[in-house]
Specification:
single chain; 528 residues; mainly alpha; 3 domains; zinc-finger; zinc ion binding; XnlR_reg_dom; repeat; DNA-binding transcription factor activity, RNA polymerase II-specific
Length: 528
């Protein structure tokens, strides 16, 4: 126990407070709950409930709804504590219940509890209005490219600013500098990518990237750039960046005419959906409530419409599965990257939809039956630097299954499932599966479906937990991101199945998360 910090942490992985203040840490490991007479499901539920609700940290789900008001420095400190979190550190960190800031937010990205957060952005030295100098004599070969692309971004912002609120020109010039562009792109891939793994980093090039995708990556990288000025400045650009992406001619063309529109190439279409998804993923953090509401109700609805037409188009062309060689390896590395990336965008949209459904008491826009694309594959394969590395890595990974979310959920709920083919699922698809089960239970309750005899859901939840536990040793914590909190979603799904959700569901369409927070607080108390 850290005497001064009053929180427990691992000597091997000290807490942020101890690191900053040079304190020593001690570590108390959670002991398994004993209970020989409990069923496997009951024992799993009891052990996990005790571990995540009393000894490991303020639960992810409760944290999402419980963030109190504070200044952006606390919010930024929360981002800072998450940057280097790995699987073990996230699981073992102990946070006292009374200490809500700055520890309530690090567990949430990209699901910030902005509904409860009152931002007062500083106007002092951290928020300059004069352009920062850039060394034009620098010899970095990328300098010319960075200057050119930064200029393109400023032109894009200026054109969109005619129809929305845009910061003054000096602020735009100070924000969109070549050095800031370079730093924020690096920040995105170093810090944010593991939470939003829908861009293929090895093939991403600043010189050739779609302008809207580049803008979206720049903005999210800026959110992660604290304590640099870019963090404090980025919130001034929310509305104009929204216009640049969602009101662009290409996005509106796809929205109105589907994927058959002739003005958008397949690669640009994929980049547009990536840009929109990335921006929506941080919309929970936007300071203005009207921005958050517009993103949740209008922009996300537009994105799901585009994703739905995208899936229909792929069904018509049979483009959901890879062509495999006899060795089980995809025949075309470039095609694999495009297909895997589009699958990730589809499923990340489903992930966002599931969270909005639960926390804002709305029925999901996307159903499990629509999720026929192959689930996201292994991260090490997706991050291969080139075709040669790709072949070497993929030869060691099971890539034959090409299972969809529909396939996995049906297997888990079946009486005699083929669970052996589910053992290779990584954190991203595993997180999607437990979200799907939770969303299905929530929807059934909202539609007054009697789940008194919910054996199929019980089986699915128990099997999912067994698969998740068995894969614990194989997971790479550096690639897991917020998905390390999947067990808490599993626990909540169990409580949804067992509890009366009338109070929670009765507030459809509300702007706050009061009922969700109240219900989760009660759940938290039950397991302390």
């Amino acid at each position: 126990m850290c005497a001064k910090a009053k929180s427990s942490c691992d000597k091997e992985v000290p807490c942020t407070t101890c690191i900053k203040h040079g304190r020593e840490c001690s570590y108390d490991r959670v002991q398994p709950v004993q209970g020989a007479n409990l069923t496997t499901t009951e024992r799993n539920l009891q052990v996990t409930a005790k571990a995540i609700a009393t000894a490991s940290r303020v639960p992810f789900l409760l944290s999402y709804t419980a963030a109190g008001a504070g200044d952006p420095n606390d919010f930024a400190h929360a981002l800072e504590t998450l940057k280097d979190t790995d699987d073990n550190a996230a699981t073992e960190q102990v946070v006292p219940a009374e200490q809500t800031l700055p520890y309530t937010l690090p567990l949430l990205l990209p699901f910030f509890a902005a509904e409860m957060y009152d931002f007062e952005l500083p106007n002092g030295p951290n928020h300059p209005t004069e352009a920062q100098p850039y060394d034009v004599e620098a010899h970095d070969p990328r300098d010319h490219v960075l200057r050119h692309r930064a200029g393109e971004l400023m032109t894009l912002i200026a054109s969109a600013g005619r129809n929305s609120t845009c910061p003054p020109e000096p602020t735009v010039s100070a924000f969109f500098t070549p050095s800031n562009l370079s730093l924020c792109i690096e920040s995105f891939f170093r810090n944010a990518y593991k939470h939003i793994p829908i861009v293929h980093e090895p093939s991403f090039e600043v010189k050739t990237a779609n302008l809207q995708l580049l803008l979206s990556i720049f903005v999210v990288g800026a959110v992660w750039s604290y304590p640099r000025d870019t963090y404090f400045m980025v919130f001034d650009f929310v509305e104009v960046v929204e216009q640049c992406i969602f009101e662009s001619e290409n996005f509106q063309g796809v929205l109105k005419n589907g994927t058959k529109t002739e003005q958008v190439s397949p690669s640009d279409f994929l980049s547009l959906t990536q840009a929109a998804t990335i921006l929506i993923s941080i919309s929970f953090a936007f300071p203005q409530s009207e921005h958050r509401r517009r993103f949740r109700e209008r922009r996300f609805s537009d994105l799901t419409s585009v994703i739905r037409s995208f899936q229909i188009d792929r069904i018509e062309h049979g483009a959901f599965s890879l062509s495999l060689s006899k060795a089980g390896l995809p025949l075309d590395w470039g095609y694999y990257i495009a297909l895997e990336t589009s699958n990730r965008v589809i499923y990340y949209t489903y992930l966002l939809d599931s969270h909005m459904s639960i926390f804002h008491a709305t029925l999901p826009r996307l159903s499990v039956l629509e999720m026929k694309a192959s689930l996201p594959g292994d991260e090490t394969v997706y991050e291969a630097l080139d075709g040669e590395a790709y072949v070497a890595i993929s030869s060691k990974v099971n890539m034959r299954s090409n299972m969809s979310l529909v396939n996995v959920v049906q297997d888990l709920m079946a009486i005699n499932p083929e669970t052996s083919r589910l053992s290779h699922l990584s954190a991203f698809p595993s997180f999607l599966v437990i979200l799907a089960l939770q969303s299905m239970i929530f929807t059934a309750k909202a539609q007054l479906v009697d789940l008194a005899n919910g054996d199929s859901f019980e089986r699915a939840l128990a099997r999912w937990k067994d698969i998740w536990d068995r894969a614990r040793e194989k997971r790479n914590g550096k690639r897991t991101g917020f998905m390390v909190h999947a067990e808490e979603v599993w626990l909540q799904a169990h409580k949804f199945l067992e509890s009366d959700l009338t109070t929670l569901i009765s507030r459809f369409g509300t702007e706050d998360m009061t009922q969700a927070r109240k219900w989760l607080t009660e759940l938290d108390k039950e397991h302390k």
